[in-house]
């Protein structure tokens, strides 16, 4: 199985090609771009396929990071993966940032892990994972004091980027690795189309005072 993974959820824009049969990553392309994911994603995707020596028709499955992360960035990646899957007649699966970081942290150790990410605004994104690598609870967005209490009572490792904000011994890890995301895409169950994981609403608000009245 050949998996093409996409990640536009944060400041980076990445694509990777993974060969499940050989158990290795064939190629990747991308960069930390900050903005402009929609303009650059297809170029990175093409570069990754060319480096792997494959065409788009060789891809058996698409995997995409569904967040949490940038509201606009996530939409770009998810829309691209769903569009490519539809055009190629192949399945697409969604992989969360949490699952990717938990897999990076565990590395076969078989321990419970809670991923804790600094969401700014005195809030923390997080999700616990069991020793089997599967989610042990839902993803959450909590104020610092509530996240601190939850993390302090967790019977496992704390990993992520929220250590300074929480004042807890959180092992620094990140950003999410596109190669690990691609590997998780092999294992993900095919079902509903990928959907963004939005734990916080968009910053942009409609300017209702400037809306035009309907005729």
Concise summary:
The chain has 215 residues and is of the alpha/beta class.
Quick tags:
215 residues; alpha/beta; Nucleotidyltransferase, domain 5; 6 helices; 27% strand; globular; disordered C terminus
- Going across the biggest sheet, name each strand in turn: 3-2-1-4-5
Q: Would you tell me which CATH topology of the largest domain applies?
A: Nucleotidyltransferase, domain 5
Largest sheet: 5 strands, mixed
Order of helices and strands: EEEHEHEHEEEHEHEH
CATH superfamily of the largest domain: ATPase, nucleotide binding domain
The helix fraction, in percent, is: 25-40%
What is the CATH class name of the largest domain? Alpha Beta
Strand content: 25-35%
Give me the secondary-structure topology:
Layout: E1 2-7, E2 12-19, E3 24-32, H1 37-52, E4 61-67, H2 71-88, E5 92-96, H3 97-106, E6 113-118, E7 123-129, E8 140-143, H4 144-152, E9 157-160, H5 163-166, E10 171-172, H6 178-187
Parallel strand pairs: 1-4, 4-5, 6-9, 9-10
Antiparallel strand pairs: 1-2, 2-3, 6-7, 7-8
Helix pairs in contact: 3-6
């Amino acid at each position: 199985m050949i998996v093409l993974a996409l990640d536009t959820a944060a400041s980076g824009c990445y694509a990777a090609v993974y060969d499940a049969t050989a158990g290795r990553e064939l190629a990747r392309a991308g960069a930390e771009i900050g903005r402009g994911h929609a303009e650059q994603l297809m170029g990175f995707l093409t570069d990754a396929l060319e480096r792997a020596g494959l065409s788009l028709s060789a891809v058996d499955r698409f995997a995409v990071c569904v967040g949490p992360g940038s509201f606009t960035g996530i939409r770009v990646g998810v829309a691209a993966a769903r569009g490519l899957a539809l055009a190629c007649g192949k399945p697409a699966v969604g992989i969360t940032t949490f699952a990717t970081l938990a897999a990076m942290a565990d590395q076969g150790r078989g321990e419970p892990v809670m991923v804790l990410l600094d969401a700014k605004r005195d809030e923390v994104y997080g999700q616990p994972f069991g020793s089997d690598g599967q989610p042990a609870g839902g993803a959450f967005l909590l104020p610092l004091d509530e996240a601190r209490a939850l993390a302090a009572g967790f019977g496992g490792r704390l990993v992520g980027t929220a250590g300074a904000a929480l004042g807890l011994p959180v092992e620094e890890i990140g950003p999410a690795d596109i190669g690990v995301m691609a590997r998780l895409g092999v294992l993900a169950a095919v079902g509903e189309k990928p959907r963004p994981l939005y734990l916080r609403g968009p910053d942009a608000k409609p300017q209702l005072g400037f809306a035009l009245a309907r005729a």
